[in-house]
Amino acid sequence: MLTRYVSISKSAMSVCCGYNDDRDPKGKFYEDYGEPILEYSFERITFQTNRERCPQMGRNYKECDPKRIGDNRGISGHCLDGQNCKNVIGGVTTLEVYNYHWTPSNCKIKVKIITNGMVAIIHEPDNKWPIFNSNDGEPDPQSHVNKDKTVSYFYVWWDESVVSPGSLPFPHYTNNNCDGGGIQEDTEGIQGFSCICKTTLEETAVFTEVPTRDEVLSTLKIGAFDPTMYDNGDNGEYIELDTNEPDVVVYKKNGSENYSLDTVFQVLDHKAEVIFLKNVQSTISVCNGKFSFRNPPTFFDTVDPEVLSGEHEFDALMDHVDSHPVTPPSTCHKMLKYYGFSNPTLQHVKSCVDSFKSGTFVYEAPGKDTLTYGDGRRGNLGACTAAIFLNKDAISPVAELDPASGGVQSPLLKFMKLMISMGLTRTLHNKRTDGLFTEYLQDAFGESPYGNPDAFSFYQLDYYPAGDHRVAELVAPEAELLTMNYIVASHNAVNALIGNGLNNCDGGVGPYFYRGTYNVCGNSIENAGGKLTDTAAYLSYVPDDLDLTIAEDVIDRLATLLTSDRLNPSSRAKIVTAYQNVLDEGGDTSIALKTAVVLITSTAEYHTVNTVQFTGNKREPTPPDMKDKTVPYKAIVSVSLFGGMDSYSMLVPWPDNSGGCPDLYDEYEKYRTKLTLKATDMDKIDPQTDQPCTSFGVNNHLTNLTKLYNRGDAVFFASIGHLNKRVDRTNFLTETTTQLFSHHTMREESFKVDAFDSYIGTGVLGRLNGKDTLLQY
Predict the structure, then answer these.
(1) What per-residue confidence (pLDDT) applies to 365?
(2) What helix, strand, coil percent values describe the chain, rounded to 5?
(3) Residue 267 phi, psi (nearest 5)
(4) What pLDDT does 189 receive?
(5) How far apart are CA 551 and CA 557, in angstroms?
(6) Residue 374 burial class via C-beta count within 10 angstroms: exposed 0-12, middle 13-18, buried 19 and up
(7) 331-343 burial by CB neighbour count: b if 16+ within 10 A, else e?
(8) Rounded to a whole number, what is the largest CA-CA distance in the chain?
(9) Which terminus in the chain has less CB density within 10 A, N or C?
């Protein structure tokens, strides 16, 4: 919030000027020097208390803005009370470094508006004395309110009703020439040109009569304390008014009008929780009133921000996010995908959304009592989970037959399900020493319990596999991990766990297990009961309540545990036969059991949450294209790196004069600062085409890429990106709708290179293969 600079509620350390009889020479007035008069260390007082204390402590108070506070080593006997000097920390001569002190000088509060409409608060004090005994010039305002240094920008609600269609509702140096504000070119060139504007605060009462609950919630944005907590102290007593509005309680401040700035309304918010809102509309006008925005509340004191204030502001933000109308459908859509419903129906999403809002889910089991989940509070995840799994789209056999229902299971979750269902048991010595998994877990499955590769997790929730899925616009998030490496490695890891236990043998993801002088892999497949002792853990489940010689019963139990009893009849019959063959050949039931588990984990039902339907048709291999062997073969290889790439740490102008372009490198170094690549960090290349530099440098961690370039087998495309028209940092917000800063969007666009969606559903390499599009791209 933009606050008045001097307020009786603010506090700072004291500073007094005047005639000082405790100094030598006595009675001399020192206007340039002030000193703190404190009753205890780091005491803070109000501005009025500071004015009253100075005369009380022998200072003939005169309003002053001292150039220096504290120890004056040029005058002996400066401090009557030694503690006063200690609080200024020795011989420090500048007053802005350690603590804030009172001054009667005014300070203008302005805003700096950058080209996307975000604003930062700027402080401009009237007096800026030179730093005492220094050649460093004037002390600057703190960086977070300094017009040249601030990076503390935030969004505000600009009033769009005051401008014509097509015009920006905020000061902009090209759109409206800042319209009364000053134009500043940022010295670092990061924000381009900004507008510096004076501010005017206006607070008005919103309602003059009792409003409805919806009017209160949609209009009032500033919170208040519970009026019943006040007594007859300085704040006055609040009185509850008699109204005819059952959903709104109105409190007026004693001595004020019924509907004034001090009036407080009590209502239930969207979560049915009691909140209190002030009858205030606070507006900030800038550029001589041409533009205005709603004054955003904040918990932070601009002068003295505290960690506790940050925690309160974060709580308020999370409360706002939780109450936002987009939160229920967004949360439910993601939950459904993570629970295996990659393409949920609208009815399925709505059921979850309704439970999110109400905090409950009611399930009427056929022929049984009604079951209620949740505690009635908005956002109860128990209610949402019940709405997902007990919805008819989740339990209906018809829904399971829909090809668009279900989804691919997360590789890591499948592995965890196997361990839980089959009774993973840690060995005694492992409980005392080793861990369970190695870093190879992520290499094998593409996932791990921790260590997300970036903020976007291990796969995208909107990932479309190639082929029929993309044509039908069906997403399959987990399918992004179905690369050949992960498929083979994860299957080996599962088989290794079943056969050897949890260790590193045969592609396992467990710890390296060393016993005595030899390396073992379970060491006891034929051991008593099939238990693997020389390993970190092993699968111990045995259906002892069944007759293990009856293959059908055993396979039915395993199918229930590992596929939720979705194992198709054809696969089930083959696994029963394999189990029985092991017994018929004299094998132990433990071997037969492991054989069955290995086969079940190879079925489609284990890897998905769908009901698999066999067509009975043989899948024919895709015939290779017939190539003319007399024509030389050349391929284009496109490598898409996972995540973003810092291209300024890859290809850089060469720094020196020997074929380089030092001016361009100096500009690069100015903006990269500590991230700058030096000549020793790069391999030099010499392009054979017309370029701004005759030499460039490639990061020397990419030596193979440099070799490919020098050999003529690689080329760099610099200064390219996805745009539907030419824009720059000053006009991109209004001139293009491209989501330039969306990771997933830009990644997808890099595959398509189709800014205008002229070839929807195609990629650049596919179009290059077409006979009529080569010259267009």
Answers:
(1) 78
(2) 30, 15, 55
(3) -140, 170
(4) 35
(5) 10
(6) buried
(7) bbbebbbbbbbbb
(8) 114
(9) C
Look up the pTM and report it.
Answer: 0.67
Instruction: Give the count of beta carbons closer than 10 Å to the beta carbon of residue 310.
Output: 12
Residue 639, Cβ neighbours under 10 Å: how many? 4
Residue 71's pLDDT is: 47
Contact 303, 10 (CB under 8 A): yes
Kindly state the helix (H) or strand (E) to which residue 292 belongs, with its residue range.
Answer: strand 291-294
Within 10 angstroms of residue 665's Cβ, the number of other Cβ atoms is 21
CA 435 – CA 426 distance, rounded (Å) = 10
User: How far apart are the C-alpha atoms of 744 and 687, rounded to whole Å?
Assistant: 32
Distance CA 265, CA 253 (A): 12
* Range list of β-strands (E), 672-711: 682-685, 696-699
Give me the torsion for CA of 545, 550, 552, 554, rounded to 10°: 40
3-state secondary structure 154-211: ECCCECHHHCCCCCCCCCCCCCCCCCCCEEEECCCCCCCEEEEEEEEEEEEECCCCCC
Q: CB 294: neighbour CB atoms within 10 A?
A: 15
What pLDDT score does 231 carry? 66
How many whole angstroms from its chain centre is CA 53?
Answer: 49
Distances (CA, A) of 652 to 413, 642, 645, 656, 719: 43, 22, 14, 12, 12
Distance separating alpha carbons of residues 575 and 756, to the nearest angstrom: 52
Of 74, 61, 67, 78, which Cα lies nearest the Cα of 26? Answer: 78
- Given a contact cutoff of 8 angstroms between Cβ atoms, the answer to whether 696 and 653 are in contact is yes
Taking 70 as the pLDDT cut, the residues of the chain under it are 1-9, 18-33, 58-99, 128-140, 180-192, 231-236, 303, 428-434, 454-455, 513-533, 636, 641-644, 658-660, 729-731, 733-734, 760-761, 764-777
Q: Which two tokens stand for residue 223?
A: 């919170």
Q: Are 276 and 265 in contact (CB under 8 A)?
A: yes
CB 263 within 8 A of CB 253: yes
Contact 414, 491 (CB under 8 A): no
d(CA 381, CA 352): 10
Position 383, amino acid: A
606 three-state secondary structure: helix
DSSP 688: S
pLDDT given for residue 429 in this prediction: 63
Say whether 16 sits in a helix, a strand or coil: strand
Query: Are the C-beta atoms of residues 763 and 752 closer than 8 Å to each other?
Result: yes
**Distance (Å) of CA 110 to CA 86, 195, 196, 293, 488:** 35, 10, 7, 14, 62
Q: How many CB atoms lie within 10 A of CB 758?
A: 11
Structure letter (DSSP) for residue 732: H
Asked whether the beta carbons of 222 and 280 are under 8 A apart, the reply is: yes
Total residue count of the chain as it appears in this document: 777
Residue 333's contacts (CB-CB under 8 Å, 6 or more residues apart) are: 344, 349
Say which residue the tokens 């975000």 belong to. Answer: 118
Burial group, residue 610, by CB count within 10 angstroms (0-12, 13-18, 19+): buried
Determine how many CB atoms are found less than 10 A away from the CB of residue 504: 20
Rg value, the chain, Cα:
36
Asked whether the beta carbons of 669 and 682 are under 8 A apart, the reply is no
d(CA 572, CA 559): 8
Phi, psi for residue 365 in degrees, rounded to 5: -70, 135
Give the 3-state DSSP-derived string for 201-221, with helices as H, strands as E and coil as C. Answer: EEEEECCCCCCCHHHHHHHCC
Q: What is the spatial distance between Cα 16 and Cα 23, in angstroms, rounded to a whole number?
A: 14
> Which are the contacts of 321, defined by CB distance < 8 A and separation ≥ 6?
327
According to DSSP, the β-strands at 518-519 and 682-685 are unpaired
Separation between Cα atoms, residue 657 and residue 686, nearest integer Å: 14
